[in-house]
Amino acid sequence: MVQRRLPRPSELRSLLRPAPFVWDGDQRRLRRAASIADLRAIARRRTPRAVFDYVDGAADGEHSLRRARAAYARAEFTPTVLRDVSEVDTSREILGRRAGLPFAFAPTGFTRMMHHTGEPAVASVAQQFDIPYALSTMGTTTIEEVAATAPQARKWFQLYLWRDRAPAKDLVQRAAAAGYDTLLLTVDTPVGGARLRDIRNGLTIPPALTLRTFVDGALHPNWWFNLLTTEPLRFSSLESSYGSVEDMINNVFDPALTMDDVAWLREAWAGKLVIKGIQSVDDAVRVVDAGADAVLLSNHGGRQLDRAPVPLELVEPTVQALGDRAEVLVDTGITNGADVLAAVALGARAALVGRAYLYGLMAGGRLGVEKAVAILAAEIVRTLQLIGVNSVDELRPSHVRIRTNG
Predict the structure, then answer these.
(1) For the segment 306-322, what is each residue's pLDDT rounded down to a tens digit?
(2) Which of these is catalytic: 115, 116, 300, 399?
């Protein structure tokens, strides 16, 4: 027989421990987020559909993005046990300087559309965690303003080449003068990808007040209030910033980009040069022969060519082909700190994350970006400890394999 009794008040008091109320709305929303997926769910609720889909979506049937994420899901670690992993070192040398974590913030266009604090909020978090931040040509804050916001951050600049080379040369000179030490030349945008979510949502830059956006605005009043009461949205490096993203790419950027342009840029830029958008080993070798310090294996987050190669699957053969001539970076599909470590174990020098921090930005501004990095950092530490290594630099291909059967 079970003997029952009434609990004493003192026993109830020890069980009833309500969490203190958090007055700040962003902190209240973010405190229970335990993964990047949680931040994505909050971002989806907090932003208009067209804005969320601009970040979340990819090109055509979005096969490239799904396959990239599936490749990371197939990564299987080989742990070793009975190792002292009470302390681990998450730092990593990236292009000649030590970073606090083995990843950087990827360049993202029109960041102030996701949250009115935009690029300065992201750059300040990069400074806080000692990781590089790459400002996009299609950013909404100037090169100089980002530099002033985060003077101690390591700053990179991502460059598209115009049909007219003069504006690009001006941007390169401004980036150098403002203390940016690395240039990322994007080479996978001869034309804009078919981003069907944006087309169906009628997304324009800046967002237009149509009947649909007016109705959506009623569901997201804070977003619209911030949009209408802060500086007008515009691309800070483009003279014209109206229309769809695809239209602007097709009208402004140069589809005639060749290896001669890589050589020209190598002469014009004294800092580190990374070629972004490499999707084959042969092209990686070609651009390194032309003077690149690193290649960024990338299919543009699946936003350009659908059914493009999976960047993670290119890491090992590219590292083998380049040896110690250049560093190999990788992006697309990274949603967990363990994804970053899988890429590094296969030979990548570091990874770049984009959507992960944008979900945080949409979910809670600067605090959300900080939360995204804290989540990724905790996953990196925990995964290193469970693998049985004391530092990111100890990772080797023997620590991971990509399963072929899921």
Answers:
(1) 999 999 999 999 999 99
(2) 300
Residue 183 lies in a domain: yes
Over residues 118-129, the pLDDT tens digits come to 999 999 999 999
Gap between the Cα atoms of 376 and 338, Å rounded: 8
Helix (H) or strand (E) holding 297: strand 294-297
Residue 145 lies in a domain: yes
| Angle (nearest 5°) at CA 246 between 240 and 250 | 70
Which amino acid type is present at position 152?
Q
Helical ranges in 136-195 per DSSP H: 143-149, 165-177
Peptide bond into 20 cis (omega under 30): no
Measuring CA to CA, which residue among 187, 179, 185, 186 is closest to residue 97? Answer: 179
pTM of the full structure = 0.93
Backbone φ and ψ for 111, nearest 5 degrees, come out as -65, -30
In the chain, how many domains are there? 1
Cα torsion 326, 329, 330, 331: sign: negative
CATH at 341: 3.20.20.70
Q: Give the strand pairing for 103-105 and 327-330.
A: unpaired
| HSE (side-chain half, CA atoms, 13 Å) at 172 | 22
Q: Judge whether 116 counts as a catalytic residue.
A: no
Contacts of 174 (CB under 8 A, 6+ apart): 143, 144
In-domain check, residue 13: no
The pLDDT tens digits of the residues spanning 26-83 come to: 888 999 999 999 999 999 999 999 899 999 999 999 999 999 999 999 999 999 999 9
Structure tokens at 379: 């996953």
Tokens in use for 390?
Answer: 């004391």
Neighbouring-strand partners of residue 184: 158, 274
Which amino acid is located at 255 in the chain? P
Tokens of 195: 């981003």
Q: Where are the beta strands (DSSP E) in 100-216?
A: 103-105, 133-135, 155-159, 182-186
Is 395 part of a structural domain of the chain?
no
